[in-house]
Structure formats: C-alpha cells, structure tokens
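Monoacylglycerol lipase ABHD2
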Amino acid sequence: MNNHETDVHTISPELPAMFDGMKLAAVATVLYIIVRCLNLKSPTAPPDLTYQDTPLNRFLLKSCPQLTKEYIPPLLWGKSGHLQTALYGKLGRVSSPHPSGIRKYLPMQDGATATFDLFEPLGDHRTGDDITMVICPGIGNHSEKHYIRTFVDYAQKDGYRCAVLNHLGALPNIELTSPRMFTYGCTWEFAAMVGYIKRAYPQTQLIVVGFSLGGNIVCKFLGENRTNQERVLCCVSVCQGYSALRAQETFLQWDQFRRFYNFLMADNMKKIILSHRHSLFGGSSVKMIDADLSRLYTATSLMQIDDNIMRKFHGHSSLKEYYEKESCVHYIHNVNVPLLLVNSADDPLVHDSLLTIPRTLSAKKPNVIFALTLHGGHLGFFEGAVLFPQPLTWMDKVIVGYANAMCQWEKQKPPCQSGHLSESSCTEEKA
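Predicted structure tokens:
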C-alpha cells in the first residue's frame, strides 16, 4: 500500500507539468497564427502617393487631408485584407442608411433597358454650385448595396446629387429586355445615364466615381471619347485592376487565396446569369442553350464564364480580344480631367503587378494622383478604434473630400488655371 502511494506521488507531479507545457505551446501557436493572419505587426501609415508637383495637385493634397494623413484601420482585424474584404462583401456597412431615390429607365438602341437611381442632394453644396456624382458600382452591384447606400447618404448630406448605375441584370427584380447583360468594360449604360443627367440638369457639373469593376468602366468611358469629359470636374476610381488580360493569370493563383475569391465571384455570376436565362438564351436553338448552360454549370472561374458566355454578348472572337477591348488600360491615358486612382496593397483581388499601371500613369500625367494604402482590402477601408468599425469608411471620406477640394479649386482658381492645365501650360498662357 505504501509502495503504491509512493509511486503515485513520484509520477503525478510530472504529468501536470507536461500538460502545462503542451497548453503553453498550443496557446503560443494560436497566438502566432492570429498575429500572422491578422497582420497585427504591420504598421499604419499615410497612403503612398505618386503624382507630379503642380499647383492643382498641391491644392488637392492640402485640401483633402485624408490623402496625406495616416489611415488607421480597426486594431484587431483591420490590418487583414481578407477580413476587410469579407466584411465589405458580407456585412456591408455598420448602420447602413436608406437614402430615398427615384429609379429611372432608359431604353437602349439594342433593345436593352438601362436603369439608374437618382438621389437629390439633402442641402446646398458648399460652393453653391449644382454638382452631380455619377457612380458606377462593382461587379454585379447596384444602388441597393450597403456600401453604395452609405456613400450616397454621405454625399447627399454634403450637397451632391447622386446618380447610381444599376448594372444590367444585377437587380433581381428587374427583367432584361434584350439578350445582353453587363460586362467587364461595356460603357453603354453608364454613357446613357451620364447623357440623361447632362440633358436633365444643363447647369450641373459632374464628379465621376467608380468602384472596382465600375472604376474600369468609368475610366474607359472618359478615355473613349474626348466629349465624354465635357462638364466633368474630376474622376475617382477605387480598387480597380486596370487590365483584365494581365489579371487573368493572377486570378488562377492561390497566393492571397485569389483562386478562392475567383471561385466565389464566378458562383455569384452564375446565379445572375441563370436568373435571366430566358432573356439571355431564349432566341438560341435548344442545342446551343444546352451547350452554353452545361459550360456555365461546370465553370469554376470568372475566366471560364467570360469565355463561354460574357464575350459573346459583344461578338468578341476570343477571351484575349474581350479582355483587351474592355480594359481601361488602353484608354485611361486619354483622360485629361483630374483623376484620383486609389488601391490597397493588401487587396486580395488586385495583384501587385497590376499597380505598375496607375503608378506609371501618375508619374507621366500631371492630372493623375495614385494613392496606395497599406491596408483596406477590396473596398473595405474601415476605420475604428479596436473592434467595431465606424459607419463611414476612409474610402467614403476620401472621395467626398477630394470632390470638395476639386469643386473649391474650380470656384476660386486663377483665370489661367483649371483642372485640365499643368503649371507649364499656365505659364504659356500668361506669356
């Protein structure tokens, strides 16, 4: 009996010590994973800016402090581009408002019906002028999305009228009236909305805003034709990828889980297409419909859907041609109005190699400012102290702040200067 007790007393102290060691190792491992996944050791910093030193750019950076001050995301999760992207995509915005607007329907030449929502300003603009923001949302998005509603409400309160394009086929309760839906770079619907605003409000000036895919569309629209830039004060593009042809290879990589995001977006596109199957495929033969739908069901990437379905809406002979023709990279150098391009370094959808496009452009053209934040994810840019984000994001504040600065410049600019002129051309005019 005594021997048994002795054995127990000699063994038992070692077991708790071993378990304590295992617990500590497990806790240390979990903490390491959390720190790495949440990127907690990453610093906060102001956006990295690329621009030419012109009077206008100096004025804009001085008058829009968000571009030069430190962007501070929520402490516990805001430095993870994945969580910023997921919160934007799934949770939308905190306390999302419900701005009241009027839906407009515009018949197109090919039988399609474009729709956009019009929101009147909730007060006078600080300059006393009539200013309209023409807004193009991200892929498959529309005016009822949380991030759009939050931004519109904020812009309305600052005296802006807002017109928000609903991508063709994106609204679940609006039927297509032709066998075509929105594509990566088709500008027809956005052009129709802008044309309506110019006719309905002949005194208004325009601020052009594009989010993600919408950024590609608005920059392509402005660069397609010089007349598209008339009455446009400036343009802001947030989180776009600039070149679908260059992006397609990166979208098949597992780095930053892009392949997984590709799958999720492809699944969402499938749902949109299938919800309009009768409008899109009704005029085709049964055999062709079966073949198209079969390829659609088995598609696991956006590229497969683009190749089998989307490129055919505009008669492109190949995926390469479709991506070449619909990417703004071939048009954006023609944009001469002030242009703010915003991207995030931890955006899991936009590969770093694509950012050479806006960086090179802003170094060459005096009207372009490229702002790259360390954090923000894809259309996230949440701000907040520790855990809970604020309703308004850094992105919302930057767009309105930049627009306010641009409007102020136009109001008080010297006679020889405007958003379209560099310092050298001002000197030439004086001479």
